[in-house]
Amino acid sequence: MSKKVLIISSSPRITGNSARLALSFAEGAKVAGNEVEFVSLHDKQIGFCKGCFACQKTQRCVIHDDADTIREKMLTADVLVFATPIYYYEMSGQLKTMLDRGNPLFIADYTFRDIYVLTTAAEDDENVPKRAVSGIEGWIECFEKARLAGFLFCGGVTDVGDIENSSKLNEAYEMGKGI
């Protein structure tokens, strides 16, 4: 059965390593017959959550920017994929801000169930993505019908293009193909 897959790339570099990993995942998901949309946050205007919680009554944020459109796409996706570079052992600020602005989804009739996390970092120790994944898992825990369905880390990639020689691109492709 075909699924609606939304991939959110939070790399500030449009051709960055985590974006490339996400594109490989997207290729696999498309080959498997899924409807795939790729959204890059690099050029989006997304303001910080004000913590007013008005969205918990209205299901809409009081801030109107690119987060509105992205959040609506998240609402109707079957599968969410978050791709982020690891900075200072955490997810990118762009992704964290978008997750915070997803607060109206909490009370909505969201359709996403499976969530995948793709990460890259300059360091290659297996513990590098631990905090980033934990932060995303915290967000997922707020959505009782959703689960972390898969995770992929590619370390040792710093400069744009470093990932091109990594087997992780094929792993991302296969992960996408398997959804």
UniProtKB/TrEMBL annotation:
Tree of life domain: Bacteria
GO molecular function, one term: oxidoreductase activity
Domain NADPH-dependent FMN reductase-like residue range list: 4-103
SUPFAM superfamilies: Flavoproteins (SSF52218)
Entry-linked Gene3D superfamilies: 3.40.50.360
Keywords for this protein: Flavoprotein, FMN
Alphabetized InterPro entries for the sequence: Flavoprotein-like_sf, FMN_Rdtase-like_dom, ISF_SsuE-like
Keyword Lipid biosynthesis: no
Protein name: NADPH-dependent FMN reductase
Originating organism: Ruminococcus albus SY3
